[in-house]
Amino acid sequence: MTDKQPQKIVSRLEKALISTTIKDERGREFWRRNFPENQIPTWNMFWSRFSVFLSEAGWKKEAELDPDDPNIESLVQYATDFQLNQLQAVSVKSQPIVRKELKRRYMSEFLAYYPDQVEIECLKAVFGLSCFSSSSSSL
User: Fold this and answer.
1) pTM score, whole prediction
2) Which of 6, 105, 120, 134 is 20–30 Å from 94 (CA)?
3) Are 30 and 59 part of one and the same domain?
4) Domain count, the chain
5) Are 117 and 101 within one domain?
6) In this predicted model, which residue has the larger pLDDT, 19 or 38?
7) Alpha helices in 57-139 (DSSP H)
8) The domain containing residue 127 runs over which residues?
């Protein structure tokens, strides 16, 4: 056995592990390209690379609502929770409009969760917390 033989075996095992655990072809390509040699990324490292991957794939952030739009009161009816949260964070004058919409939807003037955190927690659950080092659990 040559000195390179064990490394070849490890490399093949790593490729097989990615191929069998990640069912989506684009997901496998993302992992191979960003984390060669089976490195375990921190959450921040993973998230920054995954964000680039999403933007390259054409994923767009939800459009921000313009608090100065004259139709803002009717627009909030169709806004996502994320958009409502964003709107009330950037505009004091929009806060009563957002609270009214939240009360209509949820019988409460406040969101019970923060959409950004929910998205991050969902991603962590999908990818498995054990995939990330514990030193990076805070964002």
Assistant:
1) 0.42
2) 120
3) no
4) 2
5) yes
6) 19
7) 72-75, 81-90, 95-106, 115-127
8) 47-139
